[in-house]
Amino acid sequence: MTIAPPISPAETGPAEASVAADGSVWRGRADASEIARWTTVAQGVAAALAVDVVERDRSNALPDAPVHLLRDSGLVDLLVPSELGGQGAHWETAFAVARTIARVDASVAQILGYSWLNQACAVFYGADAETANGWLRRSARGHWVWADAFNPVSPDLSFVADGDGYRLNGRKAFATGAAVADVVISGAVAEGGALDGQLVVFALDRGRSGIRQLGDWDNIGYRASASGGVSFEDVIVTRDDVVGIDRDLPFSAVVTPGVQLLFGNIYLGIAEGALAQAAELARKRPNSWFLSGVERYADDPVTHRVFGELVSRTAAVEALADKLNRQYDDAVALGHATTAEDRAAIELAVARLKVVSTEVGLEVASRVFEVTGASSTKTATGLDLHWRNIRTHSLHDPVDYKRIEVGAHFLNGTVQPVSLYT
């Protein structure tokens, strides 16, 4: 798979500190030219992925080639400031990129989106500007892809003092992208040592001794997402591996609405991709139903009605997603000035998107078969890939609890406890 050469960041002279005293690294909003520039790059990536997306899904192989494609395109460095060697783009642009790629391959869009969010932990949890800048600069220099082993429903990891460092043991399930990433980020409560009792966030190179990829991902969807588990067996973690400490600050907790906003955009991208592929199939579908009174299925009023309904609902989700993608840039720009009320506001707004993007994405990816016919269920066609992907990933965390979250706040002003899911 090849695309045009990567776009190089602007020359800005020697690298300088980018994370300000307020703790943020992202300021302002994307302009139309930035979004257009990187959406074009994403379209090139999506076109390259489309060539063999069905075969890669069927093989359940590790997505090594797609990850190289993401590096070569410049997308993995999209959100690193230009003065630190990155592309200096905004979150609105990043979410648009993820949505574009998800229209073709949601697995790869997920790996890329998680890479940005895990990389961003250097800012959200960073102990100081110098440390955060160092992580971002090294990441851009090496074009690192980041993954995580944070899954909060897995047992906690053991993180025990050993000399000047710590020894890490345990396992985490559903570590999306970890088998193909450069860096795996995780966290654990320190037992003993200088960080005793603190929730330490650290980043480890994937090849570190004692880290083992379990290769146990064999689900009906997201098959190319490398979402198997990871085990840690006496892994040595030094102070240099520490990204920061989770001190339950509102700014640090803004990362979770970012994760949920990524999901909403990917679900929307899946719906858009399913509609685009279904429209192509419907236009090529020969003959017509004998009661329709027309010669082609593409002229059948029933076909028009189904597409009209699905396209309209998808457009409504798109409008909400676009609005929230811009708002997220405003939210992260607050840095350490973020209040609990600020964090709750973006959390609740994104929860509403999660509800409707899940519902519409599942409906669209399922109902497109009504207008493409039995022939579209052939394995080689790959129309089912959209439904299998969203059906698998939409179970990440129960959408019913998002409905409850939104309803409880609407009625009683209740805000759910901060977590890695809310």
Describe the protein in words:
This protein has 422 residues and is of the alpha+beta class. The protein contains eleven helices and eight strands. The protein has three domains: 32-145, Butyryl-Coa Dehydrogenase, subunit A, domain 1 (Orthogonal Bundle), CATH 1.10.540; 158-245, Butyryl-CoA Dehydrogenase, subunit A, domain 2; 252-412, Butyryl-CoA Dehydrogenase, subunit A, domain 3 (Up-down Bundle). Strands 1, 2, 3, 4, 5, 6, 7 and 8 form an eight-stranded mixed β-sheet that branches. Helix 1 packs parallel to helix 4 and helix 9 (340-367) crosses helix 11. It is globular, with a radius of gyration of 22 Å.
The overall average pLDDT, rounded, is 94
Q: In angstroms, what separates the terminal alpha carbons?
A: 37 Å
**Proportion in β-strands:** 5-15%
Number of helices: 11
Which overall shape is indicated by the principal axes computed on the Cα atoms?
globular
Number of domains: 3
Low-confidence stretches: 1-17
**Radius of gyration, taken over Cα atoms and rounded to an integer in Å:** 22 Å
How many strands?
8
Structural class: alpha+beta
CATH homologous superfamily descriptor of the largest domain: Butyryl-CoA Dehydrogenase, subunit A, domain 3
> What is the CATH class name of the largest domain?
Mainly Alpha
Give a quick account of the main beta sheet: strands, pairing sense, barrel closure.
8 strands, mixed
CATH topology of the largest domain: Butyryl-CoA Dehydrogenase, subunit A, domain 3
Which CATH architecture of the largest domain?
Up-down Bundle
Catalytic activity: dibenzothiophene + 2 FMNH2 + 2 O2 = dibenzothiophene 5,5-dioxide + 2 FMN + 2 H2O + 2 H(+); dibenzothiophene + FMNH2 + O2 = dibenzothiophene 5-oxide + FMN + H2O + H(+); dibenzothiophene 5-oxide + FMNH2 + O2 = dibenzothiophene 5,5-dioxide + FMN + H2O + H(+)
Domain Acyl-CoA dehydrogenase C-terminal: 262-397
GO cellular component, one term: cytoplasm
Domain Acyl-CoA oxidase/dehydrogenase middle: 160-235
